[in-house]
Amino acid sequence: MNMPDAYIIERLTPQLGRGEACAVARWIAEEDLTGWDKNALIRRILLHEPLQYIFGHTDWRGLRLEVSPATLIPRPETAELADALRRVSISRPLRVLDIGTGTGCLAIALQQDHPDWEVWACDISEEALAVAKRNAQACHANVHFFQTDILSPCPLQAMTAPTGEQLCFDIIVSNPPYICEEEQSQMEDNVLNYEPHLALFVPDNDPLLFYRRIAQLEVGQTMVAFEINERFGAETAAMLRDNGYRNIQIKQDICGKDRIVLAECSSN
């Protein structure tokens, strides 16, 4: 491990505090700074730009993933969703759809955890999909990517199997936008000013917008798995129940907050 730069620690400490300044300096010490202007780097950090965007990558669940301003930075909570699906005990290969894939982290994790699963992933953003495709290639994960707006009338219409029939899925997984616009005032600058709002926010008057749309898709799913806003666990469960789902589980994250919802479709 390379030694942290004392100059960087000194410059960052007045604003960040000694502990965070040292943590940032330790991260930077592991990066190749050839050609970097150290003072310009410090200015970006003091403007709260995430290191993941500055250096273009993050480490998540054992994966080195490219990130860009078109993608959210993968969070530990999303790793917990992948872990919940790792424990799904079904003996046959499954076909899985990840909606709003961003960096592709969930899709890649699922394909690596279950090499016999057929994993598809979509996003509305062409830029995010380009990042996801590069990540899948770098991680040697066989994921099928496509672009769509899940809120459009027929979001999966163009997606067909090689034989031409409409694809069906066993599991739909999603970490969609779920932060209400009114919550912006509570957010840190490193998120609010840098991460893509398209992937973060939903209208205050319809916080379950994406979950309801996904629940109502008719692509043969037997199960849905969501990362959710901690404020709406009960409401998400009630919506799924109203749409014919059963065996609904709300799971807490490592901080004890409602974060994951799993549900089975009663028609299957």
Summarize model confidence as the mean pLDDT: 94
Radius of gyration: 20 Å
Main β sheet profile: 7 strands, mixed
User: What overall geometry do the principal axes of the alpha carbons give?
Assistant: globular
Helix vs. strand class: alpha/beta
Q: Total number of β-strand segments?
A: 11
Strand order of the largest sheet: 5-4-3-6-9-11-10
What does this structure look like?
This protein has 268 residues and is of the alpha/beta class. It is 34% helix and 20% strand. The chain has helices spanning 6-16, 18-29, 38-46, 51-55, 76-86, 105-113, 126-138, 189-192, 209-215, 233-242, and strands spanning 57-60, 63-66, 95-99, 118-123, 143-147, 171-174, 179-180, 201-202, 223-227, 245-252, 258-265. Helix 6 links the parallel strand 3 (95-99) and strand 4. It is globular and about 60 Å long. The model has no long low-confidence stretch (mean pLDDT 94).
Salient structural properties:
alpha/beta; globular; 7-stranded mixed β-sheet; 34% helix; two-stranded antiparallel sheet; 268 residues
Which SSEs are present, and which pair or pack?
Elements lengths: L5 H11 L1 H12 L8 H9 L4 H5 L1 E4 L2 E4 L9 H11 L8 E5 L5 H9 L4 E6 L2 H13 L4 E5 L23 E4 L4 E2 L8 H4 L8 E2 L6 H7 L7 E5 L5 H10 L2 E8 L5 E8 L3
Parallel strand pairs: 3-4, 3-6, 4-5, 6-9, 7-8
Antiparallel strand pairs: 1-2, 9-11, 10-11
Helix pairs in contact: 1-2, 1-3, 5-6
